């Protein structure tokens, strides 16, 4: 396994999983579950630095993705089981979890299947599954996501509104992510297709939302074109103990665009 700062591995039934950790080893670890077609190095390093100031933050690559071994997974349930195995090895009692986009689906499934492992959960740009009413994802989104590789313009379109402030912030964040040393290899074509299959087949959790008893912070970008904020609102209305926050002039990457405010809100939630 290639070396890099703060990297180690844990063994799971799906193979050896690569992990990066940041922050002090005290309190409840915060485990991050990434977006669609991402590795553990597709989080903005400036965001990670802020988030790990008071918490131990744990990132990992799923099997067959990035630096992790094994075969890539084609179901949300399997991804949740891997996250559970990681949590069992990095958390002394339980963990908090932050799921972004596809990672939000994995986090919700994780909370249903392994409720004893989680203390609190943060969902960003997440959907509880198919919603009959409300705004729809823009048609161009699927076309851009399906490209063999996404460039800076693609990421700006997908993650940031077309305002001067948002685009400027987006360019800076995208370049920080791209210029990191020791980056995990990109997601393969096979893993990409299996992630598409996983999300497409996922039944969602709306029919079981009342079973999610843990405190949940639901975060959305007001101009998110990938997962419209309405989806996050519906999710927040269905679970028993949820707080909903929407950030203005922001899209799918609201947590990077409003990093300081997000970390303040997340820290307040996690320490409540």
Automatic annotation (TrEMBL):
Entry annotated with the keyword Manganese: no
Gene Ontology molecular function: any one: hydrolase activity
Pfam family, one: Abhydrolase_1
Stored InterPro entries: AB_hydrolase, AB_hydrolase_1, AB_hydrolase_fold
UniProt keyword list: Hydrolase, Plasmid
Keyword check for Methyltransferase: no
PANTHER family reported for this sequence: AB HYDROLASE-1 DOMAIN-CONTAINING PROTEIN, HYDROLASE, ALPHA/BETA FOLD FAMILY PROTEIN
Protein name from the UniProt record: Alpha/beta hydrolase
Organism: Rhizobium ruizarguesonis
């Amino acid at each position: 396994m290639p070396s890099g700062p703060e990297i180690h591995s844990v063994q799971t039934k799906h193979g050896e999983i690569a992990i990066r950790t940041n922050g002090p080893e005290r309190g409840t670890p915060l485990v991050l579950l990434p977006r669609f077609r991402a590795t553990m190095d597709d989080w903005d390093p400036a965001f990670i630095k802020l988030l790990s100031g008071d918490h131990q933050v744990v990132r990992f690559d799923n099997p067959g993705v990035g630096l992790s071994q094994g075969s890539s997974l084609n179901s949300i349930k399997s991804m949740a089981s891997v996250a559970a195995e990681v949590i069992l090895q990095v958390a002394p009692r339980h963990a908090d979890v932050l799921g972004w986009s596809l990672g939000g689906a994995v986090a919700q499934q994780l909370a249903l299947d392994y409720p004893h492992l989680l203390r609190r959960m943060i969902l960003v740009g997440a959907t509880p599954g198919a919603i009959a009413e409300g705004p729809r994802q823009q048609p161009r989104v699927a076309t851009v996501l399906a490209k063999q590789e996404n460039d800076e313009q693609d990421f700006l379109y997908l993650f940031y509104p077309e305002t001067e402030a948002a685009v400027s912030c987006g360019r800076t964040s995208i370049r920080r992510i791209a210029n990191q040393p020791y980056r995990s290899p990109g997601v393969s074509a096979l893993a990409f297709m299996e992630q598409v299959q996983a999300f497409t087949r996922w039944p969602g959790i709306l029919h079981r939302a009342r079973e999610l008893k843990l405190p949940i912070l639901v975060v959305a970008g007001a101009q998110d074109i990938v997962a419209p904020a309405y989806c996050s609102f519906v999710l927040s209305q269905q679970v028993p103990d949820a707080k909903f926050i929407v950030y203005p002039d922001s899209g799918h990457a609201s947590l990077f665009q409003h990093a300081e405010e997000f970390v303040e809100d997340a820290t307040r939630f996690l320490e409540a």
